Amino acid sequence: MNKKTLIGLGIAAAVLVVLVLIRNQSDQPGNILEQVRLEPLVPAGLSTDDIARIELYKGAVPGERVVLARSAQDADEWLVASHFNAPVETQRIREFLANATGLRGEFRTTAQSDGALEPFELTDEAAFHVVGFGRADDTPLFHVLVGKSPEFRTVFVRQADNRTVYVEEIDLKRDAGIQQPFDVLDASVITPKPNHWIRTDLLALDTESVTRIEMTTPSRTVALERQALPVPEPAETEEDAEDDLPPPAPEFEWVVAEGGPGGPLKSVGMEGLVRRFGNLRGETIMDPALAADYGLEPPAYRLEVAVEGAESPTIIEAGRPDPTGPGYMRVAGNPHIYEVQSFTFEAVFPRASQLFDLPVVDVPLSSVREVRTQGPEGAIHLIKGEDEEWGVVAPSAPLPVQQTTVDELGRAAAVWRPVDYVNSDADTGLDTPQKSITIVHVDGSEIVTHIGNPSPEGGYFVDFDGSPMPLRMSQTDVDRLFPSPSDLYQLALLGIHPDLVDRIAIERAEDAFTLARTDDDGWSITNDEGEASADAMAIENLLVDASALQAREIAFEHSEAPGEPDATVRFSLGDGTEVGIHFGPEEGEHRWATVDGMAGVFRVPVADVARLLPNSSALRVVEAAEES
What's the whole-model pTM score? Predict the structure, then answer.
């Protein structure tokens, strides 16, 4: 076979392969749109411009519907009419309208009854309803029901006025944000939510053009300005003149124009603050009728942001009734109130410590000899021993010291940092402070910190010896510096081991009884009804509760029992020792308690006491002969 023949056969084979590939490609099944003739599910000729309102709801709960309406002022804008006329994400509603007007389905079946629609989840109750209205009246332009998905790519649909079931690739239910979580079995309870549609962008400024920020919080006001740095004149050379170099780009710095605690700004903190104005978003939109509840009438926080070239500054008004919770913001002149997460709020209204260096208490722990606190709950006095371990002088209690809590108080007193400064005209309450903490150095000198009123921004107003202005201490630091006096001690009361108890006596006016361990390691109960077997498991649980019993707090105001006890529980151990605990009447959620051989009065939760004082009938085992 010559060379020309081989070349001809090769070309023929290649052509044959191409023809086979083309044939195979044409034999591949297309998608649903390509395979069958589809029937329209909305009126022919319906366009997105014809639709002025969309209503979305689950058939089982028609009252929980989302209503989207075209704005009367701007036909291109949509509002969530069912949720305070919140603005709708433009691209999302455009895609939804395009999908709704393009609905075409493949015929699946015609159900002969409503019951026959149940497998498709297309009954009126089970289906998801999409109803479109025009501008003229309340007659729907279309009303389609969306059922379940036979597979990921398709969904069952039907029109509201007939039972013909179609398969459709466009899933308006998913487009409306309806997805069934794996842990929710009843799909009927999954209703549309307005948040899926809400446009939550609150502010988007050109951060490079921000020139001034004036920030007001409940406790202070500060104005910050961006200023151009002077550009030094370069020494011109003949070479520079020939190159005709452009002048260097100007550089800027932020400075304090008004207010402030003194000192320079932290550049990192300022950069983070300004950056926030480029993309400030909320979580959802709230009821404008509740503006006062959100701290917005009048606004507790205010921010003016001036932008180069703008006629007037952008003003953000904000409130935060709970200083540990979310905040609420609106742009002045805009009726929409946005809820923002706590970290977003604190980024827009940062603590002064993020922008400035504030006065601090920072004492080497080795130079501190004593710590004294004074407050409504009482005084605490710590002294450091020769072994450098803190000991408790006051309050005194007959319990082991909770050393971790005591050590933490000593460390916290020596080093703490305020989070904010305060305007001098704020109602700080420092003229009559509620609490104080004193550090005594080894040389006898002292630093006293006074704690005044609670701050509306969280924590407390404070000052200390040498601070040039009132400051704000965080709630976390206040809690560290002023623990409950009871927290200085380990509050376990009995400390008995369940296996060592041979006898339990419960003494009270009614239903007194005795429990005794038997030779077979069981238990017996003796009361007015005589002796009987007792529920060993229940008694072992009682002993476990007794061994773990802790006081909620120490009643330092009582040196002895404030009255006669209502009940006593005595535990007799195998070595002949006995431990008794006495309980007084209920006082709210607690009962006072005293323990034999231990000075002091304690408060114990009512529920914990109840577990040590069961009814005898709950422990007595009724024998079969006794039942007969």
Answer: 0.80
